């Protein structure tokens, strides 16, 4: 998860886990494609709307597990990961009705959160041919309280339903690196442009949590997504009856530079014609060797979440470019803009009635949808900025929660003298608090803000904590494909 923060406010970003609930984050710094391709919803044909695609070069309109594995490269940093990760792109529609792709900053991150079922110490890797969808492309309303009620009350209707959990699995995180970040999955809808202009100076982070409970029988998408379900607290909690197998909890993050359009009249829309955000969704096709992935699930448990801390992973250069092959019908399609309609001529559906986009197992048939046209402003829930709540690393995640993780470091910080004998014992940790992205052209500067803490303790009761702050810099590239 990206962590929005500055040197003036060193605070943790989304979720960090205890050693028994480890994770790793998979950086995919470049898109492998931007196109109307979705083999889960529109297999063998052009999909209705444009997707930002990451992962294997073997991805295509009728891609299978074998196609992904056979792909010549991946846009993600671990070469063993030939999975495909895709979500609808984000567009801006100006006052004249023209559409422009919003710049995607830093690619995407796919988090593998390792939460076993209660009473277990292990969990299962994704099996060969596994695929799933999160979110509902046709959703256009939200009938639950804003903000969320406490998770302790999610055990009664209507919160103990998959319908609620699916919508609670969406996040639209307002980024401002000068202040304490919002918690992830805090806001389940796309803020209106006035709010984005006034508050989100560093853009908008779109977040998506996938189901992690599996029926253990079906690998492929059938009847939409009935083979998987959310646990009782979206990413934590217990699995419902009929879904006994706990898989890694997959979490997507993509950052879009909405502030590029500050002061311009218009609105932002998800590529499926959704100005509300309620219809945001994502797709996943497993592309790992399942034996290797199980080894990684069992082995890659360093609480830092850094892929560099797992000895199994082969990590490629961050500048590596990997592109999918477009079908001939899409080679010349303008998906960047300015264009007079959304790619695929998708109509704008503001709700609250559901839209009629294609879904897995039941694609829309008949004439193509009508041309997009400027839509009037729609009412969205009111949810002001709220700094995420700081929690101890041993606490259970709640919406708005902010966690920190401490990992050993060899760096030493001078501690204040302890005048009371005997000599104090010192321990050193480094806490990864945030990831900040800035962009100029194709260059993306990643700033990892860290705080080093030395704890000095004498055998009686004295404890002194001395913070020190520094930055680790990395440079990436990004493009428009």
TrEMBL record:
Pfam families: DUF1996. Residues 38-288 form the DUF1996 domain. PANTHER family: DUF1996 DOMAIN-CONTAINING PROTEIN, PTHR43662. This is DUF1996 domain-containing protein.
């Amino acid at each position: 998860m990206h962590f929005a923060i500055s040197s003036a406010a060193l605070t943790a970003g989304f979720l960090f886990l205890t050693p028994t609930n480890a994770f790793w984050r998979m950086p995919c710094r470049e898109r492998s494609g931007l196109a109307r391709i979705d083999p889960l919803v529109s297999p063998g044909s052009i999909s209705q709307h444009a997707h930002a695609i990451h992962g294997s070069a073997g991805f295509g309109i009728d891609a299978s597990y074998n196609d992904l594995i056979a792909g010549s490269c991946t846009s993600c940093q671990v070469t063993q990961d030939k999975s495909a990760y895709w979500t609808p792109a984000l567009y801006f529609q100006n006052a004249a009705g023209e559409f422009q792709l919003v710049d995607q900053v830093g690619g995407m991150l796919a988090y593998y959160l390792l939460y076993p079922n209660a009473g277990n110490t292990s969990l299962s890797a994704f099996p060969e041919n596994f695929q799933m969808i999160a979110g509902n492309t046709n959703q256009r309303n939200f009938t639950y309280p804003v903000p969320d009620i406490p998770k302790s009350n999610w055990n009664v209707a209507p919160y103990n339903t998959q319908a609620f959990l699916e919508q609670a699995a969406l996040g639209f995180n307002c980024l401002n690196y000068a202040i304490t970040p919002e918690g992830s999955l805090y806001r389940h809808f796309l803020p209106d442009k006035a709010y984005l202009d006034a508050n989100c100076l560093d853009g908008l982070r779109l977040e998506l949590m996938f189901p992690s409970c599996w029926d253990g029988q079906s690998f492929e998408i059938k009847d939409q997504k009935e083979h998987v379900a959310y646990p009782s607290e979206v990413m934590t909690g217990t699995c419902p009856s009929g879904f006994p197998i706990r898989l890694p909890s997959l979490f997507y993050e993509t950052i879009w530079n909405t502030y590029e359009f500050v002061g311009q009249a218009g609105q932002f829309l998800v590529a499926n014609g959704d100005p509300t955000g309620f219809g945001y969704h994502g797709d996943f096709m497993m592309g790992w060797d399942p034996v290797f992935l199980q080894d990684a699930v069992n082995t890659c448990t360093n609480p830092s979440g850094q892929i560099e801390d797992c000895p199994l992973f082969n990590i490629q250069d961050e500048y590596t470019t990997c592109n999918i092959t477009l079908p001939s019908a899409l080679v010349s399609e303008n998906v960047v803009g300015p264009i007079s309609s959304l790619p695929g001529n998708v109509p704008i559906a503001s709700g609250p009635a559901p839209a009629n986009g294609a879904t897995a197992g039941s694609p829309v048939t008949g004439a193509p949808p009508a041309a997009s046209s400027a839509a009037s402003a729609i009412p969205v829930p009111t949810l002001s900025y709220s700094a995420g709540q700081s929690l101890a690393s041993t606490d259970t995640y709640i919406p708005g929660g902010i966690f920190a993780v401490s990992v050993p470091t060899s760096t030493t910080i001078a501690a204040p003298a302890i005048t009371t004998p005997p000599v104090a014992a010192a321990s050193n940790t480094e806490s990864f608090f945030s990831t900040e992205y800035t962009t100029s052209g194709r260059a993306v500067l990643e700033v990892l803000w860290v705080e080093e803490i030395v704890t000095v303790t004498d055998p009686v009761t004295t404890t002194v904590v001395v913070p020190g702050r520094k930055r680790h810099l990395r440079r990436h590239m990004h493009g428009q494909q």
